[in-house]
Specification:
Distance between the termini: 78 Å
Order of helices and strands: HHHHHHHHHHHHHHHHHHHHEHEEHEEH
Number of helices: 23
Shape: globular
Radius of gyration: 27 Å
Largest sheet: 5 strands, mixed
Structural class: mainly alpha
Strand order of the largest sheet: 2-1-3-5-4
Length: 555
C-alpha cells in the first residue's frame, strides 16, 4: 500500500503525462520515487542514523589529538575554566566550536563528575553534527527520491573522510552541517512558502559565517550552482520548445495567436512582495544578531565583531602561502579515499543534465563539482576540507541510484541500482574502518595530515607515572623546551606548573620535555641531575625526548 502523499502522487501523474517535456519552474524535486512504506522508510532511516552514530562514537578517544585539536582544546579550556574567549582573526577560525564544546563539557561534568574536560566530551561536538548531516540528507527525500535519499545518507554515514573528520575536534563537521542546512531550509521554503524555513536558512548561514571565514566560498558556490541549474533548465526549455528538425533547418516558429493567460505574480505564493520583504528583513536581522552574538563572545568582547571582518584579509593571505598543493590534489585525494562517491557523483550529475527533470539534482551536481573547482583553484589545501565536497557528491550519487532504479526495464534496473549502491557502501565502509580504527595515524592515507602518532601517548603515560612517583601528582613541575609540542598542552591541562617555553632554558623542575634536536644541549644543561627516560615520535619529522630527575628514574 502506498504511503505517498496526494500531492506527491499528483506530481508523479503530471510527470508521467509530460515525460517528453521539460519540467516547469516548480519542479525542484518530485522525482519518481519507488513505493516505500512508512515502516520501511522509518526502519531504513533509523538504521542508517544508528550506524552513523556507532561508527563515529566507537573508541572515540582512540586517536590521539591532532596539533589543531590541541590548540582548539587550549581555547576551550580557558573558556571552560575562566569563562573567557576572545576571537582573534589571526587564530584558528570562528567561535562556534568552543561554545558548542562548552555545552558538552559542562554536561559531562554535571552528569559524570570530574573536571568535564575530556577527549570524548570535546569530540562529541563534531560527532553530533556529523550524524545530524546524515539526517539532513534524509530530509531531501522529496528531492532525491526515497531510494536516493537513503543511499545519499548511507554514503555520508560511511564515508571514510566524513567519519574521520566527525571524530576530530575541529570546525569542519558543523561547518558542513550548516552548509547543507542552508540548502535544506531554502528548498523547504521554496516548496512550502513557510517563512519558518527562511529563518532557519538565515540561522544556518549566520552559524556558518560564525564557524569559518571560508563561508564566503561555500555560499558563493551555492548561489552559483542555483543560477546554473536555473539557466540550464531555461535554455533546455527554449531549445526543446521547437522541434529538432525545424531547429536544424533554421525555421522559426509561427507566432501563437492564442490569448495567453495572465502571468501570476512570482512572489504571490510567498504572500506577495510586502510579505517577502518583511520576512527577509527579519531573516537579515536574525543573521546579524547571531553573528554579533558569537563574535562578541555574547556581548562581552566587541573587538571580536570588527575582527570578523579583518579575518577575510588575514585568511586571503593564508590561502596563498600555507599548506599549498597542486591544482589536482583534491581530485587525487578523492580518487584514493572517496572513489565510490566521486564516480557515482559524476554519473548522477550527467544523468541530471541529460534528463533535465530534476532542478535539485542539477543544482547538487553543480554544487559538488563547483566546490571541488573552487577549492582546487585555491593553493591552500588540507584534507579536512574534502568533506565540503563529499557531502554534495553523496547527494547526487543518491540521485543517480534512484534514477537507475526507476528505469523502465523494471527488475533489471533495480538490480543494477542496488548492486551499484551495495558496492559503493561496502567500499566506503571497509575504507572507513581501515582508516579510522587501524591506520588513523598513517600518513600514507590523505586524511591523516601531519597527525600525532599513537606512540606519543606513552609519553603522557610516563609523565603521569613519574608525577605519581614524585608524590606531587598534578602539582609536579614540568618544563617543555621543545619548539613543537602541540597537542601536549591538552594532555597536561591539569598540571598547573607545566611551562611551555618552546626553547632551551635553565630549570630545576622534576620533568623536562625537549626535542630530539636539543638532546646534546639538554645533556649539558641538565647535567648529572637528570636521566633520559626515552624518546617519543610526535608526528612526521618531530620527536620528543623526556628527562626526569635521577631519583625518579633510578630505583
Amino acid at each position: 500500500m502506498s504511503t505517498d502523499s496526494t500531492k506527491l502522487r499528483d506530481r508523479k501523474t503530471t510527470a508521467a503525462r509530460t515525460s517528453a517535456q521539460v519540467p516547469t519552474d516548480a519542479d525542484f524535486g518530485g522525482v519518481d520515487a519507488p513505493e516505500v512504506t512508512a515502516l520501511v522508510w522509518r526502519i531504513a532511516s533509523l538504521t542508517i542514523l544508528a550506524s552513523a552514530a556507532f561508527i563515529r562514537l566507537y573508541e572515540l578517544g582512540l586517536k590521539p589529538l591532532h596539533h589543531d585539536e590541541g590548540v582548539n582544546g587550549f581555547f576551550l579550556t580557558t573558556l571552560f575554566r575562566n569563562g573567557v574567549y576572545h576571537y582573534d582573526p589571526t587564530n584558528y577560525h570562528g567561535p562556534t566550536l568552543y561554545y558548542f564544546a562548552l555545552v558538552t563539557t559542562k554536561l559531562n561534568a554535571l552528569l559524570f563528575g570530574g573536571s568535564g574536560l575530556s577527549t570524548v566530551a570535546v569530540r562529541l561536538v563534531p560527532l553530533i553534527f556529523g550524524v545530524a548531516t546524515v539526517w539532513l540528507a534524509l530530509c531531501l527525500r522529496q528531492n532525491l527520491g526515497s531510494i536516493g535519499a537513503l543511499i545519499a545518507a548511507a554514503l555520508i554515514a560511511l564515508s571514510p573522510g566524513d567519519v574521520y573528520i566527525s571524530r576530530y575536534f575541529i570546525h569542519e563537521a558543523h561547518f558542513v552541517f550548516f552548509t547543507l542546512g542552508i540548502v535544506v531550509a531554502a528548498v523547504r521554503y521554496y516548496e512550502s512558502a513557510d517563512p519558518l524555513y527562511l529563518l532557519l536558512a538565515s540561522l544556518s548561514a549566520a552559524l556558518l559565517f560564525a564557524t569559518k571565514e571560508t563561508a564566503l566560498i561555500s555560499v558563493g558556490v551555492l548561489l552559483l550552482a542555483f543560477i546554473i541549474a536555473n539557466l540550464y533548465l531555461r535554455l533546455a526549455r527554449r531549445n526543446t520548445s521547437v522541434p529538432w528538425e525545424k531547429q536544424r533547418a533554421g525555421k522559426k516558429r509561427k507566432p501563437n495567436k492564442k490569448k495567453r493567460a495572465p502571468r501570476e505574480e512570482p512572489l504571490l505564493r510567498f504572500g506577495g512582495l510586502s510579505n517577502v520583504a518583511l520576512w527577509s528583513g527579519v531573516a537579515l536581522a536574525l543573521f546579524i544578531f547571531i553573528s554579533i552574538l558569537f563574535y562578541s563572545s555574547f556581548f562581552t568582547y566587541w573587538e571580536g565583531v570588527s575582527g570578523a571582518l579583518e579575518s577575510l584579509q588575514v585568511w586571503a593571505k593564508t590561502g596563498t602561502k600555507e599548506h599549498t598543493h597542486k591544482l589536482y590534489t583534491y581530485l587525487q585525494w578523492l580518487m584514493q579515499e572517496e572513489s565510490p562517491l566521486l564516480l557515482l557523483g559524476a554519473m548522477g550529475a550527467m544523468i541530471a543534465l541529460i534528463r533535465r527533470r530534476n532542478r535539485f539534482a542539477i543544482f547538487a551536481g553543480a554544487w559538488a563539482f563547483g566546490i571541488l573547482a573552487a577549492y582546487s583553484l585555491i593553493p591552500y589545501k588540507t584534507p579536512w576540507l574534502t568533506i565540503n565536497i563529499t557531502v554534495p557528491l553523496a547527494l547526487v550519487s543518491g540521485y543517480a541510484v534512484n534514477e537507475i532504479y526507476n528505469l523502465e526495464d523494471g527488475l533489471r534496473s533495480r538490480i543494477t541500482a542496488l548492486t551499484l549502491a551495495a558496492v559503493a557502501l561496502i567500499l566506503c565502509g571497509a575504507q572507513s574502518i581501515i582508516l579510522n580504527f587501524y591506520h588513523y595515524d598513517d600518513d600514507r592515507y590523505p586524511y591523516v595530515y601531519a597527525h600525532t602518532y599513537r606512540e606519543f601517548l606513552p609519553l603522557v603515560d610516563e609523565i603521569e607515572r613519574l608525577a605519581k612517583r614524585a608524590g606531587t601528582g598534578a602539582q609536579t613541575g614540568i618544563t617543555i623546551t621543545a619548539p613543537e609540542y602541540w597537542p601536549l598542552p591538552w594532555y597536561l591541562r591539569d598540571y598547573e606548573h607545566a611551562g611551555f617555553y618552546g626553547r632551551m632554558t635553565t630549570t630545576d623542575e622534576a620533568i623536562v620535555v625537549g626535542s630530539i634536536e636539543q638532546e646534546a644541549e639538554l645533556e649539558t644543561v641538565l647535567d648529572s641531575r637528570y636521566r633520559m627516560v626515552g624518546s617519543y615520535p610526535l608526528r612526521p619529522g618531530v620527536t620528543l625526548v623526556l628527562y626526569a630527575k635521577k631519583e625518579l628514574v633510578e630505583p
